## 1
Amino acid sequence: MEAVGQLTGGIAHDFNNLLGIIIGNLDFIEESLAPSSELHNIVTSATTAALQGATLNKQLLAFSRKQDLAPGPLNLNERIPSMVTILQRSLPETIEIHIRQSPDLWPCIADASQVESALLNLVLNARDAMPVGGELSIETANFCIGGDGDRPDMVPGDYAVLSVSDTGSGMTEDAIEHAFEPFFTTKPVGQGSGLGLSMIYGFAKQSGGHVTIDSTPGRGTTVRL
């Protein structure tokens, strides 16, 4: 994962520079053309494609932990309720949402917009795993890691945890093993880029945290950030 991240980050930065030149020149050309001309439409389409490439590039930078973040003090309990309305619009009526918040949740240091993006991504994944409906739970909790070496992948300390659980199709052990790799997806072609979980992984690591997946085929999935 570290090697893939370093390679991805290097390519993404170089690609970003190229896209900047392409988009800048397309904008210059577009300004010099009549809006009704056929060539103007072609340039507009090319600009749209280049901007989509820039979005993809941003996702790759997120995985490689080289995206620009604006971390600050954050109370997850205060942030989640404001997103519930948005989340409900993204879910069918067959999925029931449960919000469980720890009353004494510790504050954390993180980029609020990235936390919201991660939560939305996890909720959409849960929705896709429950095509006929089910239950979706969003929870917050405190988690303390001691220096006993039980969690060598994390620095000892106090963490705030955001969990998203569903009662959907679940994941196999093989899928869990590769879930955070960029472009890996179990969804049909055209229904997922395979970058959602890799972005969350990169964001968590860049923020000094971690992300884990617990899942059983046919019994649902829990992702803890």
Note: The radius of gyration is 20 Å.
## 2
Amino acid sequence: MMNKENKKTYIEEMRKNFNSNSSVMIAQYQGLNVNELDKLRKELRDKGIKFKITKNRITKLAIKDTPVKDLEKFFIGPTAAALSSDPITTAKILTKFSKTNNKLKIIAGFMDGKVLDEKEVSIIATLPSLEEARAKIVGILASPAQKLLSILLAPGSKIANLARAKSLKK
């Protein structure tokens, strides 16, 4: 049991976490053992995502005056919240983990001021991450330059190949 001072500290910490992160994904973890939870936590932590196992009654108090207050109704049963500024990476990791371990159930999320249901979270998980999107854009922008370069160099290489072929015939 938490004493009154610990509860106040917990509420303030959770309130700060909910206020400072633009995305929250809520999952139920009933049936996961310590090793499975540690594996998930490590994967999330490596990407800068906080994974908090919550005390529902106290978390509902902490969430009241935050942008994510509409998530209050989802804090039922053994609940955990993944908090980050990158909803796509969070959704990808949680969705991937839930596919290999059906004991983790994503029940809701919050992104851009909107509450997401589990289907919307799984759709977000299919989007490219920021790094993937940047790589695609760079590839698209670099492609025309490579084509232009090959067109400009082609006549010179054709002449060189023709000259080489003529010299081999002699």
Note: Helices lie at 4-20, 34-46, 56-63, 87-100, 118-125, 130-169.
## 3
Amino acid sequence: MEQLSQIKNIIFDFGGVIVDLDKSATVNAFRSLGFDAEAFVGTYGQGGPFAGLEIGNITPEQFYAEIARLSSDYVRKASVQETLTPASIRAAWNKMLVGIPSHRLQKILSLRKQYQVFLLSNTNVIHWDYSCDTLFSWQGHRPEDFFEHIYLSYEMHLLKPDEAIFRTVLERSGLHAEETLFIDDSKENCRSAEGVGLQTFCPNRPDDWMNLF
């Protein structure tokens, strides 16, 4: 990453950068319902119906139905089908979203005084609805208070690390890549962003990016 002196815009990833994640909590929550989600819940990306939800190819209702269908392939017990309701699936899926410490939210608000600040996340409608209602509600705020614009994979039908998602963000927001810093905890995503000319920072821990400013 070059010096911040030329940076006018910041694009934040969400998971592992702004919000703390615990993917094992989701795997364990699904396991308690009788469903093995470990093969589908990855460190930087999802598989199966979880991936379909993340890129916006299926609705939450289709997601719930597919999880219930897949569960019968793993465990053929009537009790499993009874516990895998839309509400229980949604709760298990949201378990990975631990929370956003207030000091990160305060920092983003302060950065908006000097930079244009954006969000670009590989996420899904279930996680985003929960985040809007719960995680960004600090001191009565809404997500729109923290970002100039919010770009979400399930709405764009694009996923990082596809370079197309970065080009789309730059084009839609009228940003110059060389003036824009992208912060993401995935090295693969950062390499892809650098391929379109973005400056990048890949934190090892969620708070690492705060030391840049």
Note: The first strand starts at residue 9 and ends at 12.
